[in-house]
Amino acid sequence: MDLLVGIALGLVVVAVAMGALMTSRGITGTVTEATAMQQQAAYAFRVIGQQLRQAGSLELNLTPSIVPGADPNSVMTPVAFDPPDPAGTRPQFDRATSTVAGTGTSAPTFTVGYQNYVESVTSADDPVTASLLRDCLGKNGVTSGVPDAAVLVSTFTRNADTNELVCAGTASDTRRAIISNVTDMRVRYVVQSPLTTNLQYIANPASVSNWRNVYALEVCLELSGTETVSTPGAQYTNCSGTLTAYADRLRMVFRNVYQIRSQGQL
Fold first, then answer.
1. Distance (Å, rounded) from C-alpha 113 to C-alpha 93?
2. What is the DSSP-derived secondary structure letter of residue 106?
3. Between vectors from CA 74 to CA 68 and to CA 78, what angle results, nearest 5°?
4. Confidence band of 112 (pLDDT split at 50, 70, 90)
5. Residue 44: how many CA atoms within 13 Å on its side-chain side?
6. CA-CA distance, 192 to 266, in Å (whole number)?
7. Cα gap 264→197, rounded to integer Å
8. CA distance 55 to 265
9. Which burial class, exposed, middle or buried, applies to 93 when counting CB atoms under 10 A from its CB (0-12, 13-18, 19+)?
10. Are 182 and 164 in contact (CB under 8 A)?
């Protein structure tokens, strides 16, 4: 009889220990997923931010043909910006069409561009250091000291088939994944009305009449975990601002607003 009681007590202890172990594993898995998603979102925003902060930037002519004092507005002359490249074939950078553009709402794609050039302070003989500028894939081709492309372009979108945030670089049809587990992505364009300080959020890029007036971009990413989590009745606010069920998955929404420093009205 004592043996049966001992066995029963042992089984109870084992059952309690297994329950505690499974609970601990579930908590550990959730924390690990949350940390991983935060790290992925931080990396994605860093890549996007690196391109958007460069958007619309031009090369500075460090030796413009200006005679100091000859013109009271000489320091503001446009010749100080966008000098010709060494081969004399690079077209002028069009900020109105090449700085930023976007398409789509539920499956948005946005493109960022800025002038490509070789820094005068670096060696033009080394294609690695000849230009310090890079697209979202970390590339920038340089041949004989001259960039292969006049504009560095990065196009960001979400691959709905693989749930990945992907990017295509300059003159490339190949999209490469930046992060995974992206179940939604939304973009809103912050437009500044000309000659005013009024800002308006526009979700549909077709409603943007002049891309020169796009002052900033708001990017929202929704990341989902792979571990099963019990979330009966729990809801979260997705990138569209709608309450949505967790559906037994950990889901996190991240937003960031990037100012396009080369645009906007005073």
1. 10
2. S
3. 135
4. very high
5. 30
6. 10
7. 9
8. 16
9. buried
10. yes
Please list, in sequence order, all residues whose beta carbon lies within 8 angstroms of the beta carbon of residue 72, skipping any fewer than 6 positions away. Answer: none
Residue 50: exposure state from Cβ atoms within 10 A (0-12, 13-18, ≥19): middle
Other beta carbons less than 10 A from residue 113's beta carbon: 27
3-state secondary structure of 242: coil
pLDDT over threshold 90, residue 258:
yes
Residue 134 neighbours by CB under 8 Å, 6+ apart: 140, 152
Token pair of 161 as six digits: 């088939």
Place of tokens 């005068």: 120
Contact predicate 157/166, CB 8 Å: yes
With cut-offs at 50, 70 and 90, classify the pLDDT of residue 148: confident
Looking at every residue in the chain, the average pLDDT score rounds to 80
Report d(CA 226, CA 42) in Å as an integer: 19
Query: Which pTM value belongs to this model?
Result: 0.79
- Phi first, then psi: give them for residue 4, nearest 5 degrees: -65, -40
Surface-to-core class of residue 31, CB atoms within 10 Å of its CB (0-12 exposed, 13-18 middle, 19+ buried)? exposed
Count of beta carbons in the 10 Å neighbourhood of residue 247: 10
Phi, psi of 181 (to 5 degrees): 60, 30
Among 142, 138, 184, 141, smallest CA distance to 164 is for 184
* Distance from the first to the final alpha carbon of the chain: 90
